[in-house]
Write a structure and sequence with these properties.
single chain; 177 residues; Porin; 1 helix; 7% helix; cell outer membrane; EC 3.1.1.77; hydrolase; acyloxyacyl hydrolase activity
Length: 177
Amino acid sequence: MKKIAFALLACCTLNNTANAVDGIAFTGGHGPDANMVAVSLTWDWGKRWFTEGDWHLGGYWELTGAAWKGDGPSPEKELYAIGIAPVFRLQRFTPSGWLNPYAEAGIGAYQFSGRRVHGSLSMGTRFEFGSHVGLGVTFGDQQQYDLSYRFQHFSNAGITSENPGVNFNEIRFGYHF
């Protein structure tokens, strides 16, 4: 986990847009092969599409550091990952109340510390793609809090013949600065 924290800090320090970080999020997930925790930094694109009605499409960049714990035949394995993903979000322009619902989807690239999730499951490569779909709400006086459910899938997209894919059901809590 120290390696992930260092990598996130280095990316933020070396990136000129680091001062524009819009939010932070904490994620916990469970799947049939592993459990995971993650910390993400987000940067809003500042662009809106399909703005004629009550809803609009926007998006943000998400830089994530994650730790996985294999949940299968021994020996259990810990993996660490860092990744970046563009995320598209469909949400209301103006909250209809204290809660503002949204739907989102994203796909990104992730580098893992190893290939083996647990004794009998190898992901094939250390480079993986991660895609997710999610539903959530923003809330608070300034809509600064964000709570969502995500389904996330990791796969190497057939780069190697060994490509079992790993799925997670995730709960995510975020704070927008």
